[in-house]
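input
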Amino acid sequence: MPYLRKITLTSMLLAALFVSSAAAIAGFDEGYDAYARGDFATAVREFTVAAEQGDYRAQVNLGVMYSTGEVVPLDIEMAVKWYLRAAVQGDVISQLYIGEKYRAGEVLPQDYEQAIVWFTRAAEQGNVLAQYSLGLLYAENFDMSNDHMLTFMWLFIASENGNNEARQNLSLLDSYMTSSAKTLARYEAVKWLEKYPN
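output
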């Protein structure tokens, strides 16, 4: 099997650090303002209040803080706790993070089926990294599929949505698949793209 290039979640997570909107649950705006002025203890306290009340934005922010060790001590278990709560509410970044933790077996038990569930939820919301991650997951675990079809399908989807690494990895798969298998995988990918357009 060719080496498929991987990417880390760190840069993607840092880009999502502070999600903000007009409608806020008590504590979120206060946490956001406190963070902006450098009062990190208040920010963590207020985000925690909002997160406990179910504000997924505060849950994501706490997840990022604990997963990067920014402002609070690095604590991956706490990060997973907050990301999982946000993922259940449909936050795409959190779904991607939880999928990766299941794939890697970090904090959560290694469970490829659960990784597929969470990556797929994020992929259905148009997250190209989740689409690419599904291609990599199937490439790494051929016991989950009898051939390269699912790998090719997800890499094709990610490639069509602009992921250059997926495009490069598709060319690596070329010699491993028959032309009819590639045609069928493309057909399935196009059907998926029509159902879940970006």
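quick obs: Confidence is low (pLDDT under 50) at residues 1-24.
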